[in-house]
Structure formats: C-alpha cells, structure tokens
Known about the structure:
Elements: H1 3-19, H2 29-32, H3 40-53, H4 67-78, H5 81-102, H6 111-122, H7 130-148, H8 151-157
Helix pairs in contact: 3-6, 4-7, 5-6, 5-7
Amino acid sequence: MNRRDALQTLSTAVGSLVALPTWARNWTPEILGPVGLFTPDEEALLTSLVGTILPEGDTPGAVSLNVHRFVMRMLQDCYDAPTQQAVRQGLAAMDAQARQAFNRSFDQCDAPQRLDVLNQTANANAAADAGARQAVQLLKRLTVEGYLNSEYVLVTVKKFTLAPGFYHGCVSV
C-alpha cells in the first residue's frame, strides 16, 4: 500500500464520519422530510407531549419549532423496533392515564393536567409502569436535544456561527 492510497482512504473515512450526523445539528423541519413512524393520533399525542415538556413562552416552544418531527425522525432512524414499540406503548399508557384521571385524552387535556400526567408517568414506581417511565425519559431527552439543536436556538439564542474562528492576518503577536 502506498502513502497516497492510505491518505485518500483515511480522508474519505474521516469525511464520511463528519458528514454522517450533520442532519441532526442545525436542523429545520424541511430537512427532515416526511416521517411515517406514528399514526396521526400518536403524532398528535407526541406533539402534545413535546409541547408539555417545552411550552411556549417568550421564545418559541417545541411545538412551534416542530420538535416532534425531530423526535419522530430520530426514533425512526436511530432506534430499533423494540424501542419504537416501547415508545408507542408509553404514549398509549400516558393517554390511558389521562383518560382515567380526567376523562379526556392526553392531547385534549389542558397544560396543568398534561403536566400532572407527565410527572406521574415519569415518577412511576410500579414495575408495570417502568416501560412508560423509560419511554417518557427517552422522549424528554430527544425533545431537549431537538430543541437545542434547532436552527432557531442555534442562530438566535446561542449565536452559532458556521466558522467559529476567523483569520486576522494583520494582528500583532
């Protein structure tokens, strides 16, 4: 093997590793494309959950930034089928708990009721509710990750610049 081939192979490998996760940083809803993982009812439930985790305020919330689409894309592309099924079951358990407590589905409850159901599910101690608790923890983590890596937060809040350092050639040392 000669040096040129080795350098070319190494640069191709490093370039592909760097380019692989770029869609997960500085994402916009248009970049994600259609996601067909959930049914429309499950998607509405996930949207309500994401909006409960990061509600609207002085800055846009998770629903305004379409973070639920990021969460769905991450679940579809980066998690295996058992995890996807566990998330579906966790969403169904939260919906059932909301129906039992408030006689409404989770997405029809108001914000304090949804927060109450979310906290009860996240703090469940029963072994039967362990799957729902893990699903809620995963969805919380993905929601925060999607929100913090959205284009709005990176550009407006964090003041992200594509080129982090600039060359100033006429600065005395």
